[in-house]
Amino acid sequence: MKKWLVITVLTLMVGCSSTPSELVTYLLPSGNTASAAHHGNDQNLLIVAPVDVASYLADMGLVYQVSPTEIVEARQSLWAEGLSKQLTRRITNDLRQKQTGFWPTQLTSTLSTAGIPRLQIRINRFNGVYTGVAEVAGEWMLIDAKGELQTVHPFIFSVPLAADGFAAQVEALSLGVDELTTQVAVSLK
Fold it and tell me: CA-to-CA distance for 131 and 50, rounded, in angstroms?
């Protein structure tokens, strides 16, 4: 009995003395703003609705696909802010830089949306994959000022990871968002 107690206490001490993994938080990098598009007062508004993310992406942990059927959510590598908010802000800012036909703005409670075209984006995948890529997939829809659907575009972008780890995953995901906003901007011209 005494031997069992000593082993238990030693096990607890070793477990308590090991330092837990450091909590790391990430923000999606801002897009390339080097080539700013000209924006005048004559531009029409474009409402960028809050990006809708799949439920498994709505928590704060970064997501990684470890097999064809299994995903894991990181416990120590977290988004510093909700993914939907980050994506909505990033997409709005990118579109301001990549096209001149519209002035994209985020939907707010004080903004009347009547008669203003709207961009809606659904993200179904926003994760690293065991094959060494980051995937950004979903669909985007453009709804005209009358509320009629103009176009629906499914998308999937696979961006190779430059290195191992969540920092590289976030950078690759950012490049996927860049590809998405380029696709949307070309359609808006």
Answer: 30
Residues with Cβ within 8 Å of residue 61, at least 6 apart in sequence: 73, 74, 75, 77, 78, 79
Tell me, which fold does domain 35-188 have in CATH? Rossmann fold (3.40.50)
What is the pTM for the complete model shown?
0.84
Continuous H helices in 18-156: 83-98
End-to-end CA distance of the chain: 78
Name residues whose C-beta falls within 8 Å of residue 164's C-beta, 6 or more positions apart in sequence: none
Residue ranges of domains in the chain: 35-188
pLDDT in tens, 10-67: 333 334 434 457 899 999 998 765 555 555 556 789 999 999 999 999 999 999 999 9
Cβ proximity of 106 and 89 under 8 Å? yes
Report the alpha-carbon angle 73-106-45, nearest 5: 145
**pLDDT at res. 42:** 65
